[in-house]
Amino acid sequence: MNINPIKTDSDYQVSLNRLEKIFDAKIGTKKSDEADILGLLIDEYEQKHHPIEAPDPIEAIKIRMEEMQLKQVDLISEIGGKSRVSEILNRKRKLTIDMVRNLSNKLNLSASLLIKDYQLAQ
Questions:
Q1: What pLDDT digit, counting tens, does each position of 19-53 carry?
Q2: What are the residue ranges spanned by the domains of the chain?
Q3: For FRET with 86, which of 53, 79, 92, 95 sits at 20 to 30 Å CA-CA?
Q4: How far is CA 94 from CA 11, 13, 57, in A?
Q5: How far apart are CA 44 and CA 22, in angstroms?
Q6: What superfamily would CATH give domain 57-114?
């Protein structure tokens, strides 16, 4: 096992290629240990050099609705009325604190994600 720090995009590509080759190594073997370490190094490099931004609150709600196979009507009790749900999801109206609390519980989303500012549609 010869593991080096990932300092450049070239190092990153080499590490990804190596991880791909040993990804299915039997647990408890040296290759499995190498895969675990490479995975940590790759994750650290990606977080530092290729961060993925969290979606805005409305996109987060839509993504979770799709994951949970929910329709707009399924959020009526959390948001308050069919037209209100439509207004929120179409960015015509902002979420209120009560909506954030309710949606956080129903969709299992972080309230800190839902309170982030976002633009309304023009």
A1: 999 999 999 999 999 999 999 999 999 999 989 88
A2: 9-49, 57-114
A3: 53
A4: 44, 42, 10
A5: 19
A6: lambda repressor-like DNA-binding domains (1.10.260.40)
